[in-house]
């Protein structure tokens, strides 16, 4: 059994939805489909989710003029329904649904915002189910509440609660083709709550884990995941397969193929993920697999992918004889913990430790408090902060016990005239992180890419 998820660009208009349904119907093992809200039809277009967010803000500002925006959302669905000759009934259902959400506005702006955002995928699923039924397919829209998708009440950033997996098992026995809206579920109190943006990927993964699917197919608009960002590297190498761990390392450093929390549910069950293209379904796509030692998925090259990400800063802390002071590392990190700042890497020397954090996680006020506490409570000698820091990540299981990978990388960066500010490699040897100047990020990526993926 396969769970198949389609992103917003795959549902942007009737032509795209037709492709989606053709894909699902072409393989009888595709029993559950998860859909996003209609996305952009072209570069100038607006995603339905963004239209709904704007509509929610209008309502929150008590502006009576929201009707125009409501109608603009309805029109997105209406144009699809018209192309499918579905009649007006489904459009009336969608208009009423939106109006009901506004009329029954819950207390609390965050709750209302989630209720409105969820309308995008909810109505998308209803429309796709109606289209499939019009073709004579035994398809059925399933509401996440009825299916038991229970999420924490962190509005706009929910997490899946464990009972969901038990509840969702029953979908495996569903005779009809299930059309399930992505992105939202219900809190234990029965309120609509969404994942963070892009969260339909997570819904698909949770369903795949719940029904013990053989594969979780995630259809998007690229043939493969590529070894480096195609906006910087022209025609980068496609990646036929990689492991969850490799994917995690790459997405951490800027590969934005899947929502960050997507892999956790399938990882626990060892379910393969297949990233594929709605616009080119014959391409086999990229597989994300568990690292079981299966020779079919043995690494082909030492490095599988290279990522670059900007927006980091380094808090460099010096204290004479630091290496002899038991507990100093914990005490320093505890200050960050108490200030609610997560850290990314901590390369250290005998008398110093550098803490790399994302700039967005550590605004000036927090940084000032952390610095003061380091001096006052830990009597450190010096704290220096460097901004404009980027990281380059070289990722691949094939690097493990392969001699010379970091030598090749550092030489390539040196030849490109790029200064390395930090290096960090864990003992699993699956990734090497280079801290460099932000303005060198693109050139660094190109240098490493050309070294590890030479032409041909
Ligand atoms: N429609 C939602 C968003 O744009 C969720 C998704 O597409 O995954 O973020």
Folded structure, characterized:
The chain has 456 residues and is α/β, with parallel strands linked by helices. Helix content is 37%, strand content 21%. The chain has 14 helices and 17 strands. It has helices at 14-25, 48-60, 66-83, 89-103, 109-134, 144-147, 163-168, 200-210, 244-252, 263-269, 328-338, 364-378, 405-415, 441-452; strands at residues 2-6, 30-35, 139-141, 177-181, 184-186, 192-194, 215-220, 225-226, 238-239, 241-243, 272-277, 286-289, 305-318, 352-358, 382-395, 420-425, 431-437. The strands form four sheets. Strands 3-4-2-1-7-11-12-10 form an eight-stranded mixed sheet, with helices on both faces. It has a five-stranded antiparallel sheet with strand order 14-13-15-17-16. Strands 5-6 form a two-stranded antiparallel sheet. The two termini are 37 Å apart. The mean pLDDT is 94. Residues 7-8, 36-37, 47, 49, 120, 182-183, 197-201 line the site of aspartic acid.
């Amino acid at each position: 059994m396969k769970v198949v998820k389609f992103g917003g660009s795959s549902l942007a208009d009737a032509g795209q939805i037709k492709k989606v349904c053709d894909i699902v119907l072409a393989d009888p093992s595709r029993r559950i489909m998860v859909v996003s809200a209609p996305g952009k039809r072209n570069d100038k277009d607006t995603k339905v989710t963004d239209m709904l967010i704007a509509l929610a803000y209008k309502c929150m500002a008590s502006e009576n003029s929201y009707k125009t925006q409501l109608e603009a959302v309805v029109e997105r669905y209406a144009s699809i329904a018209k192309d499918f000759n579905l009649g007006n009934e489904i459009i009336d259902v969608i208009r009423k649904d939106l109006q009901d959400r506004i009329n029954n506005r819950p207390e609390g702006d965050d709750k209302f915002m989630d209720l409105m955002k969820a309308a995008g995928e909810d109505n998308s699923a209803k429309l796709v189910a109606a289209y499939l039924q019009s073709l004579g397919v035994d398809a059925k829209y399933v509401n996440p509440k009825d299916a038991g998708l229970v999420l924490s009440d962190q509005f706009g950033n929910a997490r899946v609660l464990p009972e969901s997996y038990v509840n969702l098992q029953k979908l495996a026995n569903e005779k009809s083709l299930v059309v399930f809206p992505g992105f939202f579920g219900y809190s234990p109190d029965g309120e609509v709550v969404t994942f963070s943006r892009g969260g339909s990927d997570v819904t698909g993964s949770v369903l795949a884990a719940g029904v013990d699917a053989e594969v979780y197919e995630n259809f998007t608009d690229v043939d493969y995941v590529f070894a480096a960002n195609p906006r910087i590297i022209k025609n980068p190498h496609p990646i036929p397969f990689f492991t969850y761990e490799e994917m995690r390392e790459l997405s951490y450093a800027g590969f934005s193929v899947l929502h960050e929390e997507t892999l956790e549910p399938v990882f626990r069950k060892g379910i393969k993920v297949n990233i594929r293209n709605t616009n080119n379904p014959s391409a086999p796509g990229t597989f994300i697999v568990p690292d079981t030692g299966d020779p079919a998925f043995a690494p082909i090259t030492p490095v599988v992918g290279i990522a670059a990400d900007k927006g980091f800063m380094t808090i460099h802390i010096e204290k004479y004889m630091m290496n002899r002071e038991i507990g100093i590392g914990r005490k320093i990190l505890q200050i960050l913990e108490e200030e609610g700042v997560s850290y990314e890497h901590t390369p250290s020397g005998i008398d110093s430790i550098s803490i790399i954090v994302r700039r967005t996680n550590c605004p000036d006020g927090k940084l000032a408090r952390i610095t003061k506490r380091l001096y006052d409570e830990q009597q450190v000698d010096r704290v220096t902060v460097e901004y404009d820091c980027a990281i380059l990540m070289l990722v691949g299981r094939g690097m493990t016990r392969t001699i010379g990978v970091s030598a090749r990388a550092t030489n390539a960066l040196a030849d490109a005239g790029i200064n390395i500010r930090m290096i960090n490699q864990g003992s699993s040897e699956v990734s090497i992180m280079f801290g460099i100047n932000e303005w060198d990020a693109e050139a660094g990526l190109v240098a490493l890419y050309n070294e590890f993926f030479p032409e041909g």
